Amino acid sequence: MPGTWGKALYLSGLFYIDIADIADQHLFARMVRALIARSSLIIAVYWKRADTACESHSNHALIEALASGDGTAAEEIMLSHIIDLRLGLNLREQPAEAASLKAALAP
Question: Which end of the chain is least crowded, N or C, by CB within 10 Å?
Fold first, then answer.
């Protein structure tokens, strides 16, 4: 929904940062922060589908897999999620108008 995509993208990234922080994995958390900062900007500029951001059912499934200690399921969920994110981006066509960073991150 227009007007809330920037906030949704921010909260989506924060979800993964929080997982790394909760796991008390400082090095991993630092890497996740750097990846989220970069990937959130890419998603904001190049997404072609409004649902490119994280879907709540995937996040719930990830939490359940982590809570039950099922690393294989967590890995599969994340791989599927990353593929879905990539498919939701239009990296081939250039925007008709240059998208400003301010516009891409607007609340």
Answer: N
Query: Which distant-in-sequence residues (6+ apart) come within 8 Å of 20 by Cβ?
Result: 28, 29, 32, 33
Per-domain boundaries in the chain: 5-90
Residue with the bigger pLDDT between 87 and 68: it is 68
The CB-side HSE value for 14 (13 A sphere, CA atoms) comes to 6
The single-letter DSSP state of residue 52 is G
State how far the Cα of 84 lies from the Cα of 91, in Å rounded to an integer.
Answer: 14
Band (52; pLDDT cuts 50, 70, 90): low
CA–CA separation, 82 and 53 (whole Å): 10
Between the alpha carbon of residue 62 and those of residues 11, 59, 65, 101, the distances in Å are 16, 5, 5, 30
CA-closest candidate to residue 45, choices 15, 81, 88: 88
Q: What is the pTM of this model?
A: 0.70
Distance CA(27)–CA(35), nearest Å, equals 13
